[in-house]
C-alpha cells in the first residue's frame, strides 16, 4: 500500500532511532521511514545496551523519537527505555520512546510506559500507522491509537495494590488541577483527541491545547501518556469508566 507523504513545511525532518535485534526488521522500518521527506533514520542499535550507549547525551547524533523493541538480548527494551529517559537533561532532552509490542505482551507495555515510554506500536502495524505514530509522539499532540492505549493502560490499575495510598506526589499534583483541567485529563484518559475534547466541552481546540499544557506542567508529565498514567494511578479514572 503506498504511503502518503505530508507536504513539506520547511522544518527539519524528525530524527528517528531504530532499536531492534532483528536486522531485517530495522531494514524494513528504515526503508519506510526514509521514504518520507519529514522523517529520517539517524541511528540503529541491535540491543538495549547498545542503544543506551548510542543515545547518551552528547554521544551520537541527536534523536527525536526512538522505536524500541521489548524483547532483546543484553538489555531489554523496558530497562533501556528507563535509562534513555533518565539520561535526558535540560540541555539534551531525552528522545521520546515508542515501544514496539504485540497485544499478548500487555504487561510489558505497562512496564515500559511506567519507565517513561511515550506510547506503543504494534510490530505488525501498517506502514502508515507507524509513520503517524512517529509524528504523533514527536509533536506530543495525542496518545498513539487512543482506544488501544486505553485498553493497555487499564492493565496498569490491576497491577496496583488494592490498598494504594491516597496521598503522595501524584495525588498532590492532581489536587492542584482546576475542575476544567480535571475534566480534560479524564477525557484524555478516555482516548479523546484535542478536537474531540473541544467538542465534548464546547470550547475551541486552541483552548483545549492550553488546558492540556497546564495539565502536563502541573503533573510534571513529559507527554499525554504520562499524564494518563497518573490519572489511572490516582484513581481519577477507572477501567470501563
TrEMBL record:
SMART domains: HTH_LUXR, REC. Residues 15-138 form the Response regulatory domain. The keyword Ligase does not apply. GO terms for molecular function: DNA binding. The keyword Phosphoprotein applies. InterPro entries: CheY-like_superfamily (IPR011006), NreC/VraR/RcsB-like_REC (IPR058245), Sig_transdc_resp-reg_C-effctor (IPR016032), Sig_transdc_resp-reg_receiver (IPR001789), Tscrpt_reg_LuxR_C (IPR000792), WalR-like (IPR039420). It holds the Pfam family Response_reg. The modification 4-aspartylphosphate is found at residue 69. Residues 170-235 form the HTH luxR-type domain. GO terms for biological process: phosphorelay signal transduction system; regulation of DNA-templated transcription. It comes from the Bacteria. Keywords: DNA-binding, Phosphoprotein, Transcription, Transcription regulation. This is DNA-binding response regulator, NarL/FixJ family, contains REC and HTH domains. It comes from Cellulomonas marina.
Amino acid at each position: 500500500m503506498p504511503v502518503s507523504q505530508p507536504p513539506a513545511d520547511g522544518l527539519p525532518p524528525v530524527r528517528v532511532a531504530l532499536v531492534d535485534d532483528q536486522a531485517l526488521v530495522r531494514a524494513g522500518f528504515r526503508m519506510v521511514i526514509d521514504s518520507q521527506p519529514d522523517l529520517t533514520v539517524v541511528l540503529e542499535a541491535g540491543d538495549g545496551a547498545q542503544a543506551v550507549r548510542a543515545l547518551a547525551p552528547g554521544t551520537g547524533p541527536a534523536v527525536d523519537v526512538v522505536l524500541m523493541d521489548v524483547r532483546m538480548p543484553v538489555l531489554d527494551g523496558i530497562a533501556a527505555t528507563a535509562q534513555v529517559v533518565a539520561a535526558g537533561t535540560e540541555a539534551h532532552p531525552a528522545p521520546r520512546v515508542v515501544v514496539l509490542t504485540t497485544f499478548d505482551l500487555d504487561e510489558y507495555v505497562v512496564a515500559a510506559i511506567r519507565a517513561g515510554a511515550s506510547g506503543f506500536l504494534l510490530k505488525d502495524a501498517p506502514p502508515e500507522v507507524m509513520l503517524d505514530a512517529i509524528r504523533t509522539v514527536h509533536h506530543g499532540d495525542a496518545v498513539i491509537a487512543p482506544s488501544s492505549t486505553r485498553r493497555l493502560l487499564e492493565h496498569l490499575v490491576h497491577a496496583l495494590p488494592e490498598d494504594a495510598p491516597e496521598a503522595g506526589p501524584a495525588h498532590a499534583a492532581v489536587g492542584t488541577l482546576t475542575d476544567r483541567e480535571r475534566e480534560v485529563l479524564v477525557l484524555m484518559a478516555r482516548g479523546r483527541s484535542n478536537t474531540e475534547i473541544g467538542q465534548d466541552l464546547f470550547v475551541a481546540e486552541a483552548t483545549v491545547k492550553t488546558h492540556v499544557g497546564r495539565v502536563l506542567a502541573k503533573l510534571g508529565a513529559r507527554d499525554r501518556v504520562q499524564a494518563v498514567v497518573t490519572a489511572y494511578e490516582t484513581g481519577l479514572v477507572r477501567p470501563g469508566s
